[in-house]
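Input/output pair, single chain:
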Amino acid sequence: MTQWNLRQFMGKTALHLLTEQITSCRQCARLVAWREQVAREKRAAFREEDYWGRPVPGFGDPQARVVVCGLAPAAHGGNRTGRIFTGDRSGDWLYAALHRAGFANQPHSRHRGDGLRLTDCYITACVRCAPPANRPTTTERDNCLPYLVQELRLLERARVVVCLGAFAWDGALRALRQLGFTAKRKPRFGHGAEAAVGPFTFLGCYHPSQQNTFTGRLTQPMLDAVLRRARTLVNGRRK
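Output:
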């Protein structure tokens, strides 16, 4: 086994171990109670399905240069399917855009066994359990932060972080601070915002929530432009 292949193998193994640690976490009592209640009661449309009902790990290419960071799993999306941004309208928007940008082999993500593969992209979130009203507390955010720190440490090739919303922007900045990377000034979130933080480039994007997509605050061309910029950055081309 070559040195490069060995590093790839070790990276995959470390991420697998981290996934096991994440999915067994019960640190936040409020989130544990809520995710399990949702998994028991279910939404009527999914009443025949077995809900995941556990923390949701990151997903994607261990050799990714682009990391997409969201807020938390949706109660009837990732909390149901066990894969981040899978089985909800936000995921429909995100994975279709990733497919158009060449990061995904198919434009949809419906369940863990649907054949979806990501290339040069890894998707994660600041909080791993579905929170009530989609609003985690600061304590819950901080309890989950070490998982994001470890992911960014293990994704050795990552150089671009696409932050879906201000919560993800702030959480990813906190994670990089723990890795020893800071900006000269704390960069402000905005759609299309760009900031250098150590060896990383942060890109801001409005979250593909229905609140944003239904109102036109986020359009497909806007999301596509951010992902094209991510591709340009990792390929080393200028604007």
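Helices lie at 3-23, 29-41, 78-81, 89-100, 138-154, 166-178, 210-213, 220-234. The domain at 3-234 is CATH 3.40.470.10 (Uracil-DNA Glycosylase, subunit E).
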